[in-house]
Amino acid sequence: ADIKPAVVYDQAGKFDKSFNEGVYNGITRFTKDTGIQVRESEPKNEAQVEQNLRRLAQRGYTPIVAVGFNMASAVSKVAKDFPDIQFSIIDGVIDQPNVQSIVFKEHQGSFLVGVLAAMNSKTDTVGFVGGMDIPLIRKFGCGYEQGVKYVTPNATVIQNMTGSTGAAFNDPTKGSELAKSQFSKGADVVFAAAGGTGIGVYQAAKDEGKLAIGVDSNQNHIQPGTMLTSMVKRVDRAAYKAFEDAQAGDWEPGLEVLGLSEGGVDWALDDYNKGLITADMKAKMEAVKASIVNGDIKVHDYMSDSTCNY
Amino acid sequence: MFETLILILDATLRVSTPLILAALAGLFSERSGIVDIGLEGKMLGGAFAAAAAAAVFGSAWIGLAFAILASVGLALIHGFACITHRGDHIVSGVAINTIVAGLTVTLGLDWFSQGGQTPALTGDARFTSIVFPFAEQIADVPVIGLIYSELLSGHNILVYMAFVFVPATYWIVFKTRFGLRLRAVGENPHAVDTAGISVALVRYRAVIICGILCGIAGAYLSTAHNAGFLKDMSAGKGYMALAALIFGKWRPVPVLFACLLFGFLDAVAVRLQGVALPGIGEVPVQAIEVLPYVLTVLLLAGFIGKAVGPKAIGKPYVKERA
Amino acid sequence: MSNQTPPYAIELEGISKRFGAVQANKDICLQVPKGSIHGIIGENGAGKSTLMSIIYGFYEADSGTISIDGEQVDIRNSQDAIKVGIGMVHQHFMLVENFTVLENIVLGAEGGAVLKHGLSAAREELKRLETEYRLDVDVDAVVEDLPVGLQQRVEILKALYRGAKILILDEPTGVLTPQEADHLFRILKSLKEQGVTVLLITHKLREILASTDNVSVMRQGEMVAHRETATTNKDELAELMVGKKVRLKVTKDTAQPTGTVLSAKDLSFFDSQGVERLKKVSFELKAGEILGIAGVSGNGQSELLNVLSGIAPLSSGEIQYAGQTITASAPKNAAQMRDLKMAHVPEDRHKMGLVTGFDAYEAAVLGYQNSEVYNGKVLMNRKAMLSECEQRMTDWDVRPPDPFLKTANFSGGNQQKIVIAREVEQNPEVLLIGQPTRGVDIGAIENIHEQIVKLRDAGKAILLVSVELDEIMALSDRIIVMFDGAVVGEVPADQADERTLGLMMANAWNEEKGAAEA
Amino acid sequence: MSQAKVPVWVNVGLIPLLNILLAFFVSGLVFLAIGQNPLEAAGYLVYGAFGYDAGIGYTLYYATNLIFTGLAVSIAFKAGLFNIGGEGQAYIGGLGVGLLCLWLDSSMPLIIIAPLAIIGGAVFGAAWAYIPAYLQARRGSHIVITTIMFNFIASSLMVYLMVNWLKEKGMMSPISRTFQESAWLPYLHDVFSPLGLDIGNSPLNLAFILALLGCVVYWGLVWHTRWGYQLRTVGTNPTAARYAGIDNAKVTIWVMLISGAFAGLVGVNEIMGVNHNLLLNFTAGYGFAGIAVALMGRNHPIGIILAAILFGALYQGGAELAFEIPSITPEIVVVIQGLVILFSGALENMFKGKIEGYFLRRAAA
Ligand SMILES: Nc1ncnc2c1ncn2[C@@H]1O[C@H](COP(=O)(O)OP(=O)(O)OP(=O)(O)O)[C@@H](O)[C@H]1O
Ligand SMILES: Nc1ncnc2c1ncn2[C@@H]1O[C@H](COP(=O)(O)OP(=O)(O)OP(=O)(O)O)[C@@H](O)[C@H]1O
Ligand SMILES: [Mg+2]
Ligand SMILES: [Mg+2]
User: Fold this and answer.
1) Which residues, 6 or more positions from D43, have their beta carbon under 8 angstroms from its beta carbon?
2) Per the count of CB atoms within 10 A, which of A181, B261, C3, C146 is most buried?
3) Is C44 in the pocket of ligand 2 (CB under 6 A)?
4) Which has the closest alpha carbon to D55: D63, C226, B104?
């Protein structure tokens, strides 16, 4: 069927090198595959989020994908006023008959890259650089820590948050300083879950000959040779699927949780990092992945109880 | 312990560099009587121009040249407003900061379609570290080895430039004809005018030097310390540089130390994060983050008390009332 | 104006200059023979400084030409003026206060991009100039530490260092003691002997008569008369300046002082830099008298007024007034002093006495803004303010009598009337009054002096600070002289003469020592 | 003596108008530079801001914030102080509003919460301005620097509080729980609909009326009370103020308290009027924009209202523009704002001299 899809990015904008950009990649692919144009909108403040959602709904766009946890309240308000329009929200949960909530098991993906980090660390010390200090980012950190400890129980995981405002996702300078400080404390692999801040982390790793792990989209290409892998969160796929389902008439409201088994999160292996991954490592990763999928390994979700006790 | 200290100092140098450059920039401007709250914007504009040019031409030096051009251009706008048209210095600075914040992203988006960022820079498009001769060899000599190989060696050229600029600034401001006129024009422009020197010309020159230094600071941000331009990447450094300038009472060497202090706090904060301090426990991220700002306020209030700047600062030079 | 005589040092033709709505100079012509001292007089605002600034290239004239030694020159800025040999000592000194004397002198004539050589060369040259003209001053002293007299020498040296052949002095004696002024005139004479041409602006007719060769008179932007000094006299000059006959004397009866209303004991004041500006000043002020405070400006008179009126805090000592004892630990601020019926006409009406951005009716209540008369419960009582202001404007002949006119747009004399009316009409017990006639023309001076005497005759106490010895001597019943923050002597008015007061103002008995120090 | 005068309309009308036109002209060049048709863009901008009910609502909603911050900047200006801390004061003001709403929403009716929250916002905003004010008045610390620092500190403080204390359990982003409706300031469209008036759905709420009231208070305070008299004296001539027995330090502190209170009221509009929960970054640069509003408004309440509406229109029209032409980002609006500040603030004298000269000459002739 012919659909009029739209997407509303959150305030970080569609080129945040993080999930907004992932969504952007997803819809670009969708447009290429189907020829259907997707209406994009980039509000810059709270009021505009609601305003743009409302305007899109008024003009009959559906489904409307809202990107990011920040949009929850606006989506919930607008969805109430436009019961005939389909809304999909990524990274947020809203219980309404015309809203689809898509969330990810970031802890599982982080666990995976933690395992790989531990296997690559010669010092048994690894680092984690988070962006803004919010539960979502702690969730990454906590999953990562579990993965590391799974391989090397007595390993040290140095965790730092870049800051406490949205700017923390966009401060590569600080990212590079944090990474360098972690290196100086002995870390030799660093996982950055910090949006644009990560660029600085990867750069620092490159400059010091250490390893870094990317996040959200596959960032292996950014510093080939020192990017160990990336923890990919397939928001692109989520957006793509929402539109695809709508086109096929299969779109359904409700909660959609995308974990390892659904292909929602994963680790990235490509030409850029294949030189760093030995066959043993690859095998181990596959095994761990399988164990998580079949439930042999249970990864604790920080957000379930706001602690990292596992 | 010693090694940690060296590493923190090493980081201090890196973090202080843009502050030093910007604060010296401010020193020239403010010594001439022109308040410059637009250091931030000029740095940001410089950072963007540097990264954009470096990305296009593949050369960090060309990037630096463009950074200087852009920043001087902004400085001239400031001069045009404050010197030629006797505008309010702070308002002009705020305007420049606002324009640059929007324009860098707008142009970046139009030119590179990466959400206002420039492409990541690699190779010659970045300033890379300079390793001093024999740094490797003597790295293991106790104390000196570490200082030489870690602290002194291994920075990029702009860092060394910043530190060379401090004595250079001192010499220019206090030992040259231009410096004499610069100081005079910030204290009593009428005296300068009646001595047959054009007040506007001296101030324009000061503002241009300010632009050059801010441009270098900006280039450092995007092509040396980082590898590309990001929205709002100056992140308040211009304001911190201004605070350092006031601490240092508009004198090059004390200003240097103020910048180093801020840099040091930043470097320590990075390392203090998540560390449980004896007796205090783990300090919240926000508390550490806020430290330089609180300290600035405390120092301003207690330590240096009333900072008395150049006497004619911020006052437009009016010869004839219309 | 033919050119048969040897060329003039300066010849001006048709100089006009307008500032916004003010025509400061109008079609001015002037010829100054080489090697002469030429005086220029005129009321405040007549346009003298403007004219000199045009010659010096500080302002550009709207029209007209300037010739130096018979050759027309194009002076667009001070640099050009310096090049053709013009030097100027401005009414308000043009010195960088935190620079040394040497730095100030070489500014603009540094002799090279690097200071070092220029400075040492300048040091040599200055030594020569100092001895040649008896202009000694410590070249390494910081200017703000120097007394005004020496600062002025620095200005003169600055001009000479640049090789000035024509020297313009704009009211040079306003800040000098009579003795210092005498010294200045000796210097000018010796300059003249060296062939230097001097243009001298002053308000003091006495100085004109004593030291100039020719004199020109300006009035309201125009050059109204030229005289050979030898052929004219005080009365003629005064009349030329004002445009009508003037009386130069105050008429008053002898004072009938009664009890002491205010007594000051050992008042000391340290400024924010920690400099002692008042040194143990003591005096008594009686009802029904005018106590004059004489002194060169900058010797503590301003601080004394500030301390008495509560604007500045006492550092030590005590003031007895209206049954209150005011000390450093029990201070009273300006509002409280006003409540005790002490009124104050400040020395500088622009800086202190008025808010030039306010409408006249608002400026007319400054200091009394909290008074019940002008206030309702919440809002100010504009009607009362307006009607009172209108009344006063008629009573005091303020022109124009428009309460809504911005204070800035009144002329200096009318601004002063607004201030004095405000303070006097509060019917104070004590009136502190500083420089009551500074910047006021001769006609208005008369009126203000009458008012002050009237207040005295009504039994009020008046403390008068003025740098004009003539004014002090004409009005005061008793005269105190201040020097360097201290009271150096007291003279009854009838025994005061210019010479004694002048010597006291210069702290003459210490002059030898002081000179040695400098 | 007759005085040639420049007609009032030249100073308050013609010159600001020319400055704005110039700012827009240069903005047009920026549009051209990025390959957009400036006229088309202007069309969207104007339509978005004024073309339909809800658009106007949004414009006025933004204007509400800008009136508050404009008044804040302006009143400090009147006392010769440059309050760059409006951003932080608004932030903390919002915190005050939010805390009161969170505390009282289940136990009190709107009629009680609303005044308390308004006071709360004002008091919190004022408190945040107090420290820089105190330091300026008593220790001589430069208020521009300290208020800038306090913006940074406010933002860290808010994050700390939101993340550690105020965040709703289970919520991903640091936002508090949504208030109950008893703590919602009514939307104007809800107020008007019983009267049969449909003014379109927009976030415009009663805080707008509060802002207008603020302007009246400002006007009365500054020009018609002795307090305002003292404040203006301090602002135009501090020496005269000391002469008049006015305690400069006290006035400095008071005026900054009021300035902070005005800024704090942004919180009423944002937190109580629109978001209905406490969140981060709701100040979104209004504090800085207030500088431009105050300047353009010539530090007069009427001017501030007009300037705030102009800037509100830029925000709203700009959003519309960015929505309709996706290749235009909202950042371009920031550029336009900056240009307006430049031309009508920093370069306000560019034409002034020439134009005034022209009228003076005409009047003199
Ligand atoms: N820079 C200026 N801008 C505007 N108007 C000025 C300026 N300087 C002087 N004026 C005006 O020009 C007129 C002449 O002033 P000028 O200073 O030349 O007078 P003056 O004769 O030197 O007076 P005084 O005896 O007080 O020094 C006055 O009305 C004054 O207000
Ligand atoms: N700073 C100023 N701003 C605006 N107008 C001014 C200013 N100074 C002077 N004027 C105007 O210029 C005119 C001349 O002023 P000036 O002070 O020179 O008067 P004056 O001739 O000296 O009168 P008086 O003898 O009363 O002092 C005044 O009427 C006043 O309106
Ligand atoms: Mg004069
Ligand atoms: Mg006058």
Assistant:
1) none
2) A181
3) yes
4) D63
Full set of structural domains in chain C with CATH = 10-242 (3.40.50.300), 260-355+426-517 (3.40.50.300)
Whether the CB-CB separation of C266 and C281 falls below 8 Å is answered with: yes
Q: Which two tokens stand for residue B236?
A: 């308040």
Q: Which of C220, C311, C332, C366 to mutate to test the interface with D (most CBs of D within 10 A)?
A: C366
Instruction: Give the bridge partners for C114, in sequence order.
Output: B176
**Beta-sheet pairing, C324-327 with C342-345:** unpaired
d(CA A74, CA A57) in angstroms, rounded, equals 12
Nearest chain A residue (CA) to D323: A41
Q: Of D323, D325, D331, which to mutate for an interface test with A (greatest number of A Cβ within 10 Å)?
A: D323
Which amino acid residue places its CA nearest to atom 19 of ligand 2?
A: C411
Which of C393, C409, C414, C415 to mutate for ligand 2's pocket (most ligand atoms within 8 Å of CB)?
C409
Say yes or no for a CB contact (<8 Å) between A52 and D323.
yes
Judge whether C156 is closer than 8 Å to chain B, CB to CB: no
Q: Are C362 and C382 in contact (CB under 8 A)?
A: no
In sequence order, what are the residues at sequence separation of 6 or more whose Cβ sits closer than 8 angstroms to the Cβ of residue C438?
A: C347, C416
Query: In terms of C-beta density within 10 A (0-12 exposed, 13-18 middle, 19 or more buried), how is residue C270 classed?
Result: middle
pTM of the prediction?
A: 0.86
pLDDT of residue A50: 87
For the cut 60, the answer to whether the pLDDT of residue D195 exceeds it is yes
Asked if A49 and A70 touch (Cβ cutoff 8 Å), the reply is yes
The C-alpha atoms of residue A122 and residue A210 are separated, in whole angstroms, by 11
- State pLDDT tens for residues C189-230: 989 998 999 999 987 788 889 899 999 999 889 999 999 999
> Does the beta carbon of C411 sit less than 6 angstroms from any atom of ligand 2?
yes
Closest residue on chain B to C23 (Cα):
B322
Select from B169, B86, B189, B312 the least CA-distant residue to C108.
B189
Cα C147 from Cα C140, distance rounded (Å)? 15
Atom of ligand 1 nearest to the CA of C47: 18
pLDDT of residue C5: 64
Higher pLDDT, D36 or B23: B23
Which residues in chain C touch residue B192, judged by CB atoms under 8 angstroms apart?
96, 107-108
How many angstroms separate the Cα of A253 from the Cα of each of A89, A93, A102, A250, D300? 10, 11, 10, 10, 53
Minimum mean pLDDT range among A245-249, C222-226, D6-10, D32-36: D6-10
pLDDT on residue A272: 93
Q: What is the DSSP string of B102-126?
A: HHHHHHHHHHH-STTPPPPP-GGGS
Q: Which ligand is nearest to the CA of C410?
A: 2
Cα C44 to ligand 2 centroid, rounded to whole Å: 9
**Residue ranges of domains in chain B:** 2-235
C94 to chain B, closest Cα gap in Å: 4
CATH architecture classification, D62-308: Orthogonal Bundle (1.10)
Residue pair B71/D324 in contact by the 8 Å Cβ criterion: no
How do the domains of chain D map onto residue ranges? 62-308
Considering CB atoms only, which of C334, C370, C400 is closest to D226?
Answer: C370
Rounded CA-CA distance D123/D129 in Å is 10
Q: How far is B266 from chain D (nearest CA, A)?
A: 14
pLDDT given at position D1: 35
Widest distance between CA atoms in chain B: 71
Question: How far B86 CA sits from the closest chain A CA (Å)?
Answer: 35
- Any atom of ligand 2 within 6 Å of the Cβ of C45: yes
Establish if D52 touches chain A: CB-CB under 8 angstroms: no
* pLDDT score of C3 more than 60: no
Top residue of C348, C355, C422 to mutate, by most chain D CBs within 10 Å, is C355
